[in-house]
């Protein structure tokens, strides 16, 4: 595995080098674990690191942060610490064992060995480690046959109560199955269906479900993920009235294409929350009140709630775009919506005129601003602030409809509005 570690970026290699030295001084053992090991074996890119310490992880990170002159966050109850280093996130955790007081609860943790730390993980392919200790640097540690399952393309849990202890693993099983085009191992699938039948996802704190759902829907091309999960659980954990048919699944396919089109065409725009577009599609057949209840119960942020609720509330309004309209009318219909909502509407309505009007808004209208200012109106004798506001608003819509380019053209139109010679 040494050659694979050499493929990590220089920043990561530097972190491993310093961490290894500090661990040796403290008489700790230290390991790369989880997804990073899996991705190295699959020759996939690595963006973040997960490190387990047989020792005091927080103490080790404190030394590391001091050496690198950076800050870090710690979580004493779990014995974990996180630092950000040159744009990357590195998580450190004290090797621990877990006990779940009841199904779906957060675990009680105690310091333990690497072997017991790895068996508490979700699947065998995520339960491997690579030593970064000087004595056996680069050695793969695979107590639970993760490499074999990786080779055979299998998603396999590590113990029979896994889905009951943490039923978020149901979502993760589907996510990893679809991401890697793997199969869910037969016994694992049976136990997963058993947990689904018992309603295990209902036992999880909604905020934890929210975070896992965002990861699920933020995968590349989530159509397959959504379809596969709907066949298993129908998203009952969100709302039992959710119904997805051919129309909705076709929407998810178009949404994937719409997001790619947006990112290619508007690469200079703000990064979008892709997952919110797909969540809005899952919720689209619920009532507005039910959508609000879902977004509140799961504790989405205010802007995220607004994206999803505005889509549901105004989806019918977008049908007005299905005809030739003046630019100012297009602007009035679409202004105020998030980029995510506009992409949703573009994907949801495949009508050519609606789509062309949305593109026209994004390309030519949304960034428009007047060159003339309030102080210019004052110089022209406009004193009333309310009249000034109405004048600028009227001028703005004229700018859109007449395609005014210069300040001189705007001043000419203002003179007509306020009847100045």
Can you give a write-up of this model?
There is one protein chain. The chain is α+β, with helices and mostly antiparallel strands and 421 residues long. The chain folds into three domains: 2-152, Beta Polymerase, domain 2 (2-Layer Sandwich); 238-365, cca-adding enzyme, domain 2 (Orthogonal Bundle), CATH 1.10.3090; 374-418, no CATH class. It contains 21 helices and eleven strands. The strands form three sheets. A seven-stranded mixed beta sheet has the order 3-4-5-2-1-8-9. Strands 6-7 form a two-stranded antiparallel ribbon. Strand 3 and strand 4 (80-85) form a beta hairpin. The relative contact order is 0.06. The model has no long low-confidence stretch (mean pLDDT 93).
Which segments are poorly predicted (pLDDT under 50) over 5 or more consecutive residues? none
Terminus-to-terminus distance = 81 Å
Mean pLDDT: 93
Percent of sequence in beta strands: 5-15%
- Estimate percent helicity: 40-55%
User: What is the level-2 CATH architecture name of the largest domain?
Assistant: 2-Layer Sandwich
Secondary structure category: alpha+beta
Rg over CA atoms: 27 Å
């Amino acid at each position: 595995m040494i050659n694979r570690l050499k493929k990590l970026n220089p920043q990561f290699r530097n972190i491993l080098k310093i961490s290894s030295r500090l661990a040796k001084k403290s008489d700790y053992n230290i390991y790369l674990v989880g997804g990073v090991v899996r991705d190295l074996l699959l020759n996939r890119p690595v963006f973040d690191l997960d490190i387990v310490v047989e020792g005091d992880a927080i103490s080790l990170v404190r030394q590391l942060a001091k050496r690198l002159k950076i800050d870090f966050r710690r979580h004493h109850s779990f014995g974990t610490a996180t630092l950000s280093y040159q744009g990357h996130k590195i998580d450190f955790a004290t090797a621990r064992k877990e006990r779940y007081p009841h199904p779906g609860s957060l675990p009680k943790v105690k310091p333990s060995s690497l072997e017991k730390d790895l068996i508490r993980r979700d699947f065998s392919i995520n339960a491997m480690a690579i030593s970064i200790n000087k004595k056996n640097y680069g050695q793969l540690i695979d107590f639970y046959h993760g490499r074999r399952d990786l080779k055979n393309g299998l998603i396999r849990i590590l113990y029979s109560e896994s889905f009951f202890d943490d039923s978020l693993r149901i979502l993760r099983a589907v996510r990893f199955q679809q991401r890697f085009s793997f199969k869910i191992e037969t016994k694992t699938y049976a136990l997963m269906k058993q947990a689904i039948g018992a309603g295990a996802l209902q036992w999880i704190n909604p905020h934890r479900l929210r975070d896992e759902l965002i990861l699920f829907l933020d995968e590349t091309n989530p159509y397959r993920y959504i379809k596969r999960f709907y066949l298993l659980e129908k998203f009952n954990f969100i709302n039992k009235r959710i119904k997805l048919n051919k129309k909705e699944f076709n929407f998810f396919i178009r949404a994937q294409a719409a997001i790619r089109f947006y990112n290619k065409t508007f690469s200079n725009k703000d990064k979008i929350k892709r997952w919110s577009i797909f969540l809005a599609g899952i919720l689209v057949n619920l009532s507005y009140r039910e959508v609000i209840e879902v977004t509140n119960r799961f504790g989405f942020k205010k802007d995220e709630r607004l994206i999803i609720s505005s889509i549901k509330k105004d989806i019918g309004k977008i049908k007005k775009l299905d005809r030739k309209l003046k630019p100012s009318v297009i602007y009035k219909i679409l202004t105020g919506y998030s980029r995510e909502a506009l992409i949703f509407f573009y994907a949801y309505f495949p009508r050519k005129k609606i789509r062309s009007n949305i593109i026209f808004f994004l390309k030519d209208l949304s960034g428009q601003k007047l060159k003339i200012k309030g102080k210019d109106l004052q110089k022209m004798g406009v004193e009333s602030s309310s009249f000034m506001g109405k004048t600028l608003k009227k001028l703005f819509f004229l700018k859109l409809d007449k395609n005014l380019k210069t300040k001189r053209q705007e001043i000419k139109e203002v003179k007509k509005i306020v009847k100045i010679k």
